[in-house]
Amino acid sequence: MGQHDLTTALSQSKLCTSVCAVCGWVGSWSRVLSEAVQQLVREHGVLVVVASGNSELDSCTIVPANVPEALTVAASNLDGKFGPQPRGGREPTYRWANTGACVDIFAPGVEIFGACG
User: Fold this and answer.
1) CA distance 32 to 16
2) All structural domains of the chain with their residue ranges
3) Contacts of 14 (CB under 8 A, 6+ apart)
4) Among 6, 60, 69, 83, whose CB has the most other CB atoms within 10 angstroms?
5) Rg of the chain on CA atoms, in Å
6) What is the pLDDT along the chain (117 residues), one digit of tens a residue?
7) In what order do the strands lie in the sheet with 105-108?
8) Taxonomically, which superkingdom (predicted)?
9) Helix (H), strand (E) at residue 48
10) Contact call for residues 75 and 106 (beta carbons, < 8 A)
């Protein structure tokens, strides 16, 4: 799925789309995905929420987490088990969560129960 697919889906939707969650596409580089996220935000006013990824990397090296227009979310862990912290603190970050300057917010990411098909 690329830029055209995302923007076409939104423009043909009969519903007013204001939020788009992009959780499945995490990679090292994709100009098409970066531009699609930027277009959704700038031209359609859509809040695009993306996962930072779970590779214990700097989120600024991951697409679409490094797109400034996106709201990048990293996983937190509130079960008392703390991941390594570069600043020496004890923050409830999921051990493998991608972190860094491109993360905008943390949200629960460990032992989350959800509906399953």
Assistant:
1) 24
2) 18-108
3) none
4) 6
5) 15
6) 455 566 666 566 655 567 777 766 556 778 888 888 898 899 888 899 999 988 889 999 999 999 999 999 999 887 655 555 555 555 578 888 999 999 999 988 888 877 765
7) 19-22, 47-51, 71-76, 105-108
8) Eukaryota
9) strand 47-51
10) yes
Q: Which residue shows structure tokens 């996220």?
A: 37
Q: What burial class does residue 58 get, using C-beta atoms within 10 Å of its C-beta: 0-12 exposed, 13-18 middle, 19+ buried? A: middle
Tokens 């700038």 correspond to 42
Tell me the three state secondary structure of residue 8.
helix
What is the torsion angle, in degrees rounded to the nearest 10, for the CA atoms of residue 32, residue 37, residue 42 and residue 43? Answer: 70
Give the burial class of 40: count Cβ atoms within 10 A of its Cβ; 0-12 exposed, 13-18 middle, 19 or more buried.
Answer: buried
Q: What are phi and psi of 49, to 5 degrees?
A: -105, 125
